[in-house]
Amino acid sequence: MKTNIFNREQLISQLPGVKKWDVIVIGGGASGLGVAVDSATRGYKTLLLEQVDYAKGTSSRSTKLVHGGVRYLAQGNIDLVREALHERGLLEKNAPHLVKNQSFVIPNYRWWEGIYYTIGLKAYDFLAGKLSLGKSTHINKTNTVERLSTLRQKGLYGGVVYKDGQFDDSRLAVNLAQTAIEQGATLLNHFKVTGLAQDTSGKITGVEALDTETNTSYSFDANLVINATGVFSDEILKMQNKDARKSIVPSQGVHLVFDKSFLPGEDAIMIPKTDDGRVLFAVPWHDKVIVGTTDTNLDDHSLEPQAQEQEIEFILQTFNNYLDKKVTRADVRSIYAGLRPLAAPKDSSEKTKEISRSHKVIVSESGLLTITGGKWTTYRRMAQDTIDKAISLKRLPKQPCRTKDLKIHGAKPTEDRNDHKYIYGTDQKGIADLIKEDASLGEKLHPRLPFLKAEVVWAARYEMARTVDDVLARRVRALFLDAHAAIDMTPEVAQILAKELNRDEAWRIEQVEKFTKLANHYCIESNTVTA
Ligand SMILES: Cc1cc2nc3c(=O)[nH]c(=O)nc-3n(C[C@H](O)[C@H](O)[C@H](O)COP(=O)(O)OP(=O)(O)OC[C@H]3O[C@@H](n4cnc5c(N)ncnc54)[C@H](O)[C@@H]3O)c2cc1C
User: Fold this and answer.
1) Comparing 352 with 77, which gets the higher pLDDT?
2) pLDDT of residue 453
């Protein structure tokens, strides 16, 4: 039988075979996974450890845009936008099953906005160069209403249409993890770094880690340790120097998810300036609409951040300002919050909207490299810069970056997105084969969502899913699309997983309890935390 390279037990059994790793990456979000792929393709022996699951943190909680950032253009941040537009183009080529060419309409309610945004977006197209996704155009009122039938018509002058990318963030994370493994790296989820090993001069020589499934401790030696833990970066920095300065401030962004009837059709809405100067998107995603986001400075961070009441109200009110078909709290199918790992401001007068969104590689005296900031869209470039930095510091032998044209696991040109399984790309066949072997796996898990039992089996066997949360939040996106439906699906998913992972009844019961508790926070009625 063919060995399954994505099997966690098998990957763990190979650990003693490696005396010293070239690179250990801490954190399995966009930043860490990108670094693991880059490092492995350059031929370095690479280990990545993720404390919970790939994209458990911020990387599953984005607005799902692969974009240059129209807002940063308005701020005059040309280099940042050009770089992101270039990366957008590369990602669309290398993961066409995950990245969709999405049209956005900016509705104009003031006479000058049509001209203003058309000029701005022409510049956006120009910066994309050869990798442009299509030309921006001005459209009149009739055309705008035809495209956005629920839009507020009173006072509408017309709209400006532009193109950007749209993707599935945690699916990309899972596919990047698979790509890294295919390139020879070892990746382990549910494996937490608990300490850093240092020699007498304070130089880092490896990490201490815990397999949280078995409670087994490990020590791994490495030439280079890279901290890619997003909002958790300071915890790792403090492990090597307890006096390390606070380098990160979390800024929370909340999204509400509604049924597609509130934004039928193909187009997304981009509201370039809300009452308090933010940008708000309403984007079609997996037959639902995501609306967000907010920008709220927090003092603290967690793996399950929660929306504040005023963030929910802000999104509802702002979206309703632009709609004739109004949304209410009862229409919210899911609510999720994510934390931006922004560089800490130098003084308290700096607001998060103004703090640099570009990425940064921090080199500590101990030899630790920390990659922070940036965005999903630029994950590949961030990884390249991190490994290039290590080479320039002579921590790794020189090898060129090889990720520009590297196809990501599952890559397949995808036009037809009607069957929800398009997201698996080339792996769609594997799921079809499972159903061929056992027709009951072709059954749906919930009447309101398209996901099948076969997808749970596939996630456990080939996508390293270990818990109900891994499956329902990040392999299929049930939790983010319809939190109540996700709760309903829990017993069935736990049952399938227990069988696949050879777990007992106590494990199954615990999984149902744990996930139900977690998923309740994605339901609006339990998500009314006041600031
Ligand atoms: C609301 C919001 C909307 C966004 N929208 C977009 C968008 O539309 N497009 C875009 O391009 N970008 C977007 N971004 C930015 C993008 O999502 C982030 O830049 C990116 O996901 C950050 O990834 P990361 O790997 O740095 O952090 P994370 O995804 O948080 O990953 C860090 C990981 O480290 C792990 N970890 C922590 N401590 C340890 C430890 N001790 N041992 C092992 N593992 C550990 C965590 O569990 C976590 O999985 C958005 C961000 C937010 C907050």
Assistant:
1) 77
2) 98
> In the chain, pLDDT over 90 holds for what percent of residues?
85
Q: Quote the tokens at residue 462.
A: 């080939």
- Smallest CA-to-CA distance from 292 within 265, 275, 269, 323 is with 269
Sign of CA dihedral 255, 257, 263, 264: positive
DSSP 320-360: HHTBSS---GGG--EEEEEEEEEEPPSSTT--GGGS--S-E
User: Average pLDDT for residues 158-165, to the nearest whole number?
Assistant: 97
Query: 432 alpha carbon to ligand 1 midpoint, in Å?
Result: 32
Mean pLDDT of 254-279: 92
Shortest-distance atom of ligand 1 to CA 339: 53
User: How far is the centre of ligand 1, averaged over its atoms, from the C-alpha of 29 (Å)?
Assistant: 5
Q: Which residues line ligand 1 (CB under 6 A)?
A: 26-32, 49-52, 56-59, 61-65, 67, 192-193, 228-232, 253, 293, 338-341, 374-377
Residue 342's DSSP bridge partners are 249
Give the Cβ contact number of residue 104 at 10 Å. Answer: 23
The tens digit of pLDDT for each residue in 214-241 reads 999 999 999 999 999 999 999 999 999 8
> How many A from CA of 340 to the centre of ligand 1?
7
Residue nearest ligand 1's atom 37 by CA: 229
